[in-house]
Amino acid sequence: xSHWLNDTDSxxxxxxxxxxxxxxxxxxxxDHCIEKSTLEFIDVQACALTACRAxxxxxxxxxxxxxxxxxxxxxxxxxxxxxxxxxxxWINYLESINENHQFLSEPHHVLTPNGGVSExxxxxxxxxxxxxxxxxxxxxxxxxxxxxxxxxxxxxDIVRIAAVISAAIKAQV
Length: 173
Hints:
The protein has a single domain (3-172), classed as AhpD-like, CATH 1.20.1290. The longest helix has 26 residues, at 71-96. The chain is mostly helical and 173 residues long. It contains 8 helices and no strands. The protein has helices at residues 11-19, 24-35, 41-55, 58-67, 71-96, 119-133, 136-146, 152-172. α6 (119-133) crosses α8 (152-172).
C-alpha cells in the first residue's frame, strides 16, 4: 500500500487517534480493513467517505475529503449517500405498509447523476451507504449489480469498510 498509511495527517490516523485505547478492538479492525482491502486506494477512500456522509459525522468526513485528490469521487460519494438515504427511506416505508410496489421488483438502474465516475464505482459507493442505512433490499440490489463486475472479496471489503467506519463514528458520538 502507498505512503498514506504512514502519514500522521491521513484520515486513517485521525480516526485511530480519535478512537484511542478505549476502543482498541475497533482501532485494530479499522486498520486491518483498510490495509488489507483489495479495492483501489481511491475506492477505499470513497467508500469510507460515503459511509461517513451516510452516518452524518462532519469531522471524519472532512478528514477524508482533505486527503482525497479526485473531486469526481468526492462528488459521487455525496450523491451516493443522499440517493441511498432517499431510496432506503422510501423502500422502508413501502415495506412497512406491505405495499407491493413495482419499484421493489424493478431491475437496478442508476437514474441519477453519478458524479462523473463509472456505474460500477457509483454502485460500490451506494453499497457502502446502504450498509450504513441498513436497507436490505438496496444492499441486495447493489450486490446483484456488482457481482457481475467486481470480485466477492471486493464486495466484502466495501461492506467491511462501511461497517467499521460507521462503528468508529458511533463510538465517538
